[in-house]
Write a structure and sequence with these properties.
heterodimer, A: 290 residues, mainly alpha, 64% helix, B: 423 residues, alpha/beta, six-stranded mixed sheet, 9 helices, 25% helix
Chain lengths: 290, 423
């Protein structure tokens, strides 16, 4: 070996990499999602979710009750002002039931969106010091809201029972609507978390976006306020499909969410896939910029 | 498995960073939106090609090539800003190279920091599992080595206590213990040993020596020439992102010392590379009382002065310095305020200058370098600079030169002799 820098000729490099060989090269443009690698890191994903859940309510007085108080209080305020005072129509469902069945998935969505959008910047130290599939970070941020969501869902089913609205077979469709809310939160979260690394403006835009989105989703009001022919277009907001789906399956709303749901699902899938590819494209510079 | 097989092949590796990013300081949403729109427009217009030496870019690595064979313990040395950390980040896949290629054969474990992902609210046990998973260990692997990790860290009694109640030493021991139980074929380690007390450093070095002897391949960045000389068989010397020397550790260390051994009594922070933290170090100097000087005689006091900027109020900040001898041993550490004498001070924003004096007749002749840091003890590191300044104590005027006495210190001590059987 000589003391000065050596340079390797092309012929020194092996022609074909064996299985355990890792090649590190600059990449460019759009790159594969590598979901197989993400799967191999599922234990890390599990631990990240577990950490989030574990520390979320540390040092709070009310603890996990916060998961229930948030939708519950919003429902009370909505029922008083929109239901009682403004006499908002609610598709023949008691207004508290009407708003709660929308607020439960909405709370999950809004928290998931906020958490995942901030997740890369919030985990900067991890990203600057260790390699792992970066997709695990926003995914775990949305997943960590699942426990809160499940509790709130159980509470609202109990609440509905007290209101004389029992569970029906329609509830079997719930997982689909949950998945739709998850995909939307993650899809937008992927876009925003990657943008947030470069443009910290996202931090300022986020609360505004969530609020704006809430008013354009039929939470306080029914989507039946819109003329029939406009309703599929309304479904472009995927949360419309989620909320209408929840009301249909839990509260027994008469509106069949079919058309809106199809549009919502297509948009959610589009958001998720484009978000994942955009995220992968941007992630190569995360460690340099966070 | 041949021992001479090449397991890390680095070929013409280059990494370019964008520097001087405009500071984001938005006061209103309107500013934020217009600012974002303007920058998005700029981003679209920016040419995507790999322009060579555009202003606003900095090459942290430039055409770096070397290779490491199975079982090698390779050191990476160089001054601050030489590109050592960038190299490790690329090899650990944390960041991508701009050009060039690396081939790595075997499972890699990299350790750029101890305790990555540790959460203060979680217990020791929980953090072991979390940190293990972050470092790439499987759950059952961690479970299998759990007892041994806890024993190594000596925290058996506190394993179910949140780590925020741990002392700094316990915290570091536990964090290092998890990392020490990684069993990769190739281990990449940054200067993790710069943290902690002497005993902790000894323990880490001991464990790393074991790893090295077990035939695994180790790549190890350090400022500690003593440790590099003891553990490494090959060594890479970087300067300004380029390879200056690569080969037998002994030869490369000699090259390093011949090139940089001379004293450098002044250091000023490159404004482009100032971290955005609450307290930043700006300048350090070695002075003879008034002017910077690199060489001191044994009977002269040595003043070390550190200038720093406090950007936001900090409740408990300490400014510390550590003096290393030429062979890499920590000769002494000092801190303002010294925790033995006073609790860490609240600091108000502004620019400050702190100085301490190493008394005359204290250090033996030799070369010394100074590490400086601003931190909240046991909590947070704001800024740290390895090898910020260095100085030489010449034989002239030193007691060691008169009689060749040994040791890092050459003080004039007063002996008192009394007869034992006087009573």
């Amino acid at each position: 070996m000589n003391v000065h820098g050596i340079s390797l000729g092309e012929r020194d490099l092996p022609p074909k990499p064996p299985a355990d060989e890792l090649v590190i090269e600059p990449s460019s443009g759009w790159i594969a999602l590598r979901l197989d690698e993400l799967w191999r890191y599922r234990e890390l994903l599990y631990f990240l979710v577990w950490r989030e859940i574990k520390i979320r309510y540390k040092q709070t007085v009310l603890g996990v009750a916060w998961a229930l108080l948030q939708p519950l209080f919003t429902m009370l305020v909505f029922s008083l002002f929109f239901g009682r005072l403004a006499k908002m129509p609610s598709d023949g469902i008691p207004y508290p039931v009407f708003s709660l069945t929308a607020l439960v998935p909405w709370t999950f969505f809004a928290n998931g969106l906020t958490q995942s959008s901030n997740s890369i910047v919030a985990n900067a130290s991890l990203i600057a010091k260790v390699y792992f599939p970066r997709l695990a970070v926003p995914i775990s941020a949305v997943l960590s809201g699942v426990v809160d969501f499940a509790l709130a869902l159980l509470l609202s089913i109990g609440f509905l029972y007290c209101y004389g609205v029992p569970l029906t077979m329609r509830a079997l469709w719930l997982p689909l609507f949950c998945l739709l809310a998850f995909a939307t939160a993650l899809g937008v979260g992927l876009w925003l978390s990657a943008l947030n690394v470069e443009y910290r403006d996202i931090r300022f835009i986020l609360p505004f976006l969530v609020q704006f989105w809430m008013y354009s989703t039929p939470i306080a009001y029914p989507s039946s306020l819109l003329p029939d022919r406009w309703r599929p277009f309304y479904g472009i907001n995927p949360m419309v499909g989620v909320v209408e789906g929840f009301r249909w399956s839990l509260a027994g709303a008469q509106t069949e969410p079919g058309g809106m749901l199809a549009v919502s699902s297509a948009v959610a899938v589009l958001l998720l896939v484009s978000g994942a590819f955009y995220f992968r494209r941007m992630e190569r510079t995360f460690a340099d910029r966070v | 498995m041949r021992m001479d097989e090449r397991v890390i092949i680095v070929d013409k590796l280059s990494k370019r960073y964008r520097v001087g990013r405009p500071q984001s300081s938005h006061n209103t949403l309107r500013d934020a939106l217009t600012g974002a729109a303007r920058r998005w427009a700029q981003a679209l217009q920016r040419p995507r090609g790999s322009g060579e030496d555009q202003p606003g870019f900095h090459w942290a690595l430039r055409d770096v090539s070397f290779e490491v064979r199975r079982g090698d313990v390779a050191g990476v040395i160089g001054r601050n800003g030489a590109g050592k950390s960038t190299l490790l980040k690329i090899l650990s896949r944390i960041t991508e190279p701009t050009k060039g290629r690396v081939v790595i054969r075997g499972r890699v474990g990299s350790l750029l920091e101890v305790g990555t992902g540790f959460h203060p609210e979680l217990t020791g046990r929980e953090n072991v599992f979390l940190n293990g998973a972050i470092l790439g260990m499987k759950k059952n692997e961690i479970a299998r080595s759990f007892d041994s990790i806890v024993a190594f860290a000596e925290v058996e009694k506190f394993i179910d206590t949140p780590v925020k109640w741990y002392s700094n030493g316990m915290y570091l021991r536990l964090a290092f213990a998890v990392a020490a139980h990684l069993e990769p074929e190739i281990l990449i380690i940054d200067e993790v040993l710069a943290v902690g007390d002497l005993q902790f450093q000894k323990k880490c070095l001991g464990k790393m020596g074991e790893v090295a002897k077990s035939g695994r391949t180790v790549l190890f960045v350090s400022h500690n020439m003593g440790a590099v000389a003891r553990m490494c068989n090959t060594c890479l010397l970087l300067d300004g992102g380029k390879v200056v020397a690569f080969g037998r550790a002994h030869d490369v260390i000699a090259t390093y010392q011949a090139t940089y051994g001379s004293a450098c009594p002044e250091w000023t922070r490159d404004p482009k590379r100032t971290p955005e933290s609450a307290v930043t170090l700006l300048r350090a100097r070695v002075l003879d009382g008034c002017a910077p000087r690199g060489t001191f005689r044994g009977h002269e006091p040595i003043t070390v002065e550190i200038e720093y900027q406090v950007r936001e109020p900090v409740a408990d900040c300490a400014i510390s310095a550590r003096v290393y001898s030429g062979d890499g041993a920590v000769v002494m550490s000092t801190s303002d305020p010294d925790p033995a004498g006073a609790p860490a001070l609240p600091r108000r924003p502004g620019r400050f200058r702190g100085a301490f004096v190493i008394p005359a007749h204290m250090l033996a002749p030799g070369n010394y370098s100074v590490f400086i840091a601003a931190h909240s003890p046991n909590r947070q590191m704001y800024d740290a600079v390895e090898n910020a300044v260095s100085f030489e104590v010449s034989a002239a005027g030193s007691l060691a030169a008169m009689d060749g006495r040994l040791g890092y210190f050459a003080p004039l001590l007063k002996w008192v002799t009394t007869p034992c059987d006087a009573g």
